[in-house]
Each structure stands twice: as structure tokens, then as C-alpha cells.
Amino acid sequence: MTTTLSDSAKSPGPGARERSPGAHGRASARRRRIASQWLFVAPAVLYMLVFFSYPLVRNVVMSFQSYTPRTYFTGEAPFTGLDNWRAVLSDELFASSLWHTLLFTAGSLLGQFTIGMALALFFSRRFPLSGVMRSLLLLPWLIPMVVAGTLWRRVLDQETGVLNEALQGLQLTDSAIPWLSSPDFALLSVVLVNIWIGVPFNMVILYGGLQEIPKEIREAAVLDGAGFFRRFFGVTLPMLRPVVTVVLVLGFMSTVKILDLILALTNGGPANATETLGTHTYQLSFLELDFGQGAVVGNVLILISMVFAVIYLRANREGVAQ
Amino acid sequence: MRDRLLRPPRGVPAAAAALALLCAGCAAEPDPDVYTIMNSSTDEPYHSWDDEVMKECGERAGVQVRQLSVPADQLVPKALRMASSHSLPDVLVLDGSDMPQFASAGGLVPLAELGMPPGELSDGARSFGSYDGTYYGAARSVNSLGLFYNKDILEEEGVEPPQTWEELRASAERLTEGDRYGLAISALSTEDGVYQFLPWLWSNGGDERRLDSPESVEALEFVVSLIEDGSASRSAVNWTQADVNDQFIAGNAAMMVNGPWQQPVLAEHPDLDWGVVEVPVPEEGAEPVAPIGGTTFTVPVDVEHPGREKTAGRLVECLTEPQAQLEWSTKASNVPVNPQAAERYREEVPELAAFADQVETARSRTEHVGTDWNVYSQAIGTALQAALTGEATPEQAMSRAQSQVRQELRSRR
Q: Is the CB of A267 less than 8 angstroms away from the CB of B190?
């Protein structure tokens, strides 16, 4: 723009002869620019198509097919309309696994976030050994889910578990608590273990966010006579909002699809008390080998995640706009 | 310009996708002298033992044999993927309860066509390798369940190994003391727990096809009674069979239901003096019916190379001949299926002889319900847990299981 202006200012001549090659040059330059833009976009688009769109579309199509082991040999997967959807949605187990997934996700996020936030606030004041303690608290995050699940299964064992022995030793409970062996407790226990796993992630991200808040603002609030809670809810939390959204949405998406932890802890039991959408789709596809019905549950899970992905994107855009 | 940006170039991804499909579709031409056997022997020493016997059989058939081992829970998904790209191995070692899935899809060669009739196998062993009356899978060694008991504890309490349900209930109660339970079982909702429930169900005349029959309900009531007596731990609903073994070794249980494959672990504790008897039956003289477990050697259909099928058949024959059965069973603590081999096994491995007896009358899980076993298994697992946790009475749990099976099977037809 500026160059054009200065060019025309320098040579205001008749230009009819000059303009056409100039316009031509501009057009080819534009084409080249578009081509190079596409080159930059192409890898991402290709990646998305191959690794996201294709499996996604396949999964949706599969949910309308009778897709069984036979399909792998014959290549035939007859379309059965809404049969799979009807079968899955009318199954009581689907309703209860949806409910368990909701409880599990809400409970996990609430616990992880609250404790993570408390720890982040705690560590945001400098004190000796705070760095060491902070890195030690990261350990649960580094342990593979299956290992954590197996260890906790031992800890929570009704008779030989350490937790019950400690509780009974401290006289906190008379009888051993059936953490994983009663349908009434199992979901709660699984949520507690998941909170233990998720706290470090929340703490680290929120701690990082707290560091970004300028010290002066806090000092100003202190000078204005704001107490701890007033400061937290009036200053810290609003300023942390973008970070909080990121933590909650990422936490949501990794929690709602939970599979490995539950498989290691309870296998969806006892009596399906901890069956979630993740374990349900696993069970249908890989244990009952009914890939069509498994795909239905998988699609529901994708749909739920998508809703929250959209919320995340909007929140992010607002954050940028601000 | 905007239009152009929004319109995706159709050619590129389509070509890439086509290329990818092409590569997936055309499996590499197999080396004519190299044969692949896919199994789940990922653990040592089993993998090297298998390497040895496979090499020997390969030499006899004049080919080279390559062993490809994948973790047990990934074997079926992997084999299915290979089937869709026509690249199945020459010999596929499948768990007995997964075999019908492949046979019903027309993916396996009937072994009789390769000169291997089931011969003199017991009915149970024959049904174990068969789908819909056709014999597809040759077993090298199988397993079943038995009642392990701690000899020292039983002697101390003056208790004889129980043979009937009544005796089991009484002795389990007597052996329960302090931190120690009389009996340890697995009642996990997965195949571990279901497998362990089958001896009670079948020996009582119950049947997976009639889960709400009085005999089936009675079997569940019996298992519940053991937990309610306090003779078996409520944690059974979370225990795998390996956990049960750990409890037994730790002295937390005087008896346990488990399989012969635990023998190597038990042998690591020489101070533990144990014995095995058959799983107790409802009444004296009743025939015990336990499940047969284990793997079978199958030959996947290879339309393009029928000659390979023949050689693969020779490999299977060599790997499962009576002498090979005896050697493998002795090493791997399993039981041979060939009657003569089983006879010699009783002499050579007397401590596990009870399993050889058990296998004679044992039944295969897929004998009646074939490819639908997984549906039944899910339903039984849920019923077992519902009843053991008190979430439902045995009767409610079993009738729910029956309707769950009915509904699921209807949706598949």
C-alpha cells in the first residue's frame, strides 16, 4: 500500500502501458502468495484429514453398520440403519454409564481443581524447600495410569489394604471400609484416586498462572485493605480466568474419556458400579467384538467432548480479544 | 482469493488416501521358506521354549519358523486387522473361547482337511477345538480349575480336603481364623471371575443358556453363602486369579480355587506345602464339570497359497503330537489333552494329577453358544458381582442376566 502510493507519487505518468504489466505482475505475485499459503496449510490439513477426519467419519459410519469379526474377513459390513443406536440407547447399562461418567467427571474436576488451586496459592509464597516440595508433588503425574491403578487397588483392598489398616489403627472406623468391593463406595474411590492423579496438573498450570499476575496489583489490594478472600475472589480469580478455563476444559476432556485407570482399579465393577462410557465402549468393541455398538458409545463420547471443545475455543477467543 | 482458500484441493488428500489403502490392501508376498506362527507367548521362559520346539518342527517340515508373540489381550484385534489385509500368519494360536469368532467367519481351515482328525480326544477336548461340529483347533495343553489347599493348615485344624459343597462350606468356615479366610476365589466381572464360577454352575446341572433355572440360581447362592459365612473375602470381586494366588501364598487363605498355571509361582515358595483336589461337587458321586481353558493351534485360510496351508498343518501336527503335549505340559504346568499323554502326565507330575482328571470331564465354554460366549460371559460376570455385593439376590441377578443375554442377542440378529 505505502509502496504503491509512493510509486505513483514518484512517477505520475500516463502509465497505461506500464499499468498492465504491473497488474499482471501483481496477479502472479498474488497467485504465488496463495500457493505458498496453501503450502503452509497443507501439512496441517493433510494431517487432520488422515488422522482425525477419516477415523471420525469411519466411526460414525460404523455405528450404522453390523460390524463384527466376520467383516474383517469378508469386508462386508451391511448397513442396519438405527439398529445399533436403538440397542445401545435402550440398554440400561448405557444410561448408568452415562450417569457414572458425569459423576466421575464432575467429582474429579471439583476435587482436582480445588486442591490444585489451594496448593498453587500455598506455593506462590516463597519459603524454604518450596521448590523441592513442588517437584515431589508432581510425582503422581509421572506415574503411568495403569501402575497407579494397580498400586491403589492394593492400597484400597478391603482386608489387606494399607488405607483400611491405617484408618482402623487410628480408630477412625470400626469396620473395614469396602472401598472397591462395594457398589456404594467404588465410584467414590475411583474419583478419589483420579483426584490424586490430577492434582499435580492443576497445581502446575495454576501456579504458572499465579506467577503471571503482577505483584503490584496484589500489593495495591492489600493497601486498600482487602482480606485474603476478598483478594482471592476479587483480584486473583478474575485475573486467572483464562488459565482456569484452560485447566478445566483440558481436565474435562481427559477425564470424560477415562478408561485405563478404571480398568486397572475395578474393571467397571463391582456390579457395573464404575462402568463409564469409556469402559462401556471398550467392552462392546473389544470384549464382545460388536464394533458397531461400540462405535455408537464412542460417538456419544466424541459428541460430548466436542461440545466442550467449542466452549474452550470460544473462551480462548474471548481471552485473546480481551 | 477467499474462494480459493476455502476450497480444498481435492486431488492431494484423495491420492494420499488411495495410496495408503493400496499399501494396506496389498500384503507383501510371503517368503516361501519362512512360516510365521503368531501366539501370545510374550513371557519368558515360554517364549524361548516355544522358539525351541518351533525350530524343531520347522526342521522336520523343511521350513524356517518365525515366532511372533503379541500380548494376549491384543492378539484378537491384531489378528482381525491382519485378516482384513490378508496377511494372517500361517499358524494362529488362539484362545479356545476366541477361536469360534474366526471359524464362523470362514477364516480357519478345518483340520481334517489337513489330515488331522480330532482322533481319540475326550468330548470336552474335542468341543474345545471345534466350532459348529467342525474341528479347527488342535490343543497342545489345556488347563482347568482345581481346589488348592495348604497342607499344614488343614493338618493343624484336622480338616480333610473337601469333596462336596457341604464339606467345602463346613471346612472353609472351620479354617477361617483371625486374618485368615478358609477359601479364596476370584469373582471379577471379567473372564477371570466368570471362569471360576463355571465349575459351580455346571457341576450343579446349571447352564449358561438357562441362567434363571433353579440349578443355575442355586450355584450362585452357594458362592454367595461362602461370602456371607465370612469364609471367603468380599474383596473377591476385585481379585484376579493371580491376586487369589498371592493371598494363598501369603497365608491369608487356607484353600483357593485356581488353575495349574499358578504352579511356577507356588514353586517359588518351597516352604509352602500345598496339594490340589478337584473342585468340590454338589453331592457325593456327582460328576465335576469344570471349564477347559487354554489355546488351540489353528491354520488360517490362505486362498492364494494352498500349499502353505498343508505345510502349516504339518507344523501344527508336530507341535501338538502326544510327546510334544507331554513335554510342554510338564514344563508349562498345563495338562495334555491326548489320553495317553495324560496318563503318563499323571505319573510324571503327580502333584497336578487332579487337573488331568478334571480335564477328562471338563467342558468348553463355547461348546453350546459358540461365538456368543462373550455376551454370556458379560452377563454372568455382572450377575456374579451383583449377588456377591448384595446389590441383588442371586435369583434377581440371574434373571436379569438371562434377559440381558436375550436382549443383546436379539440386537445382533
A: yes
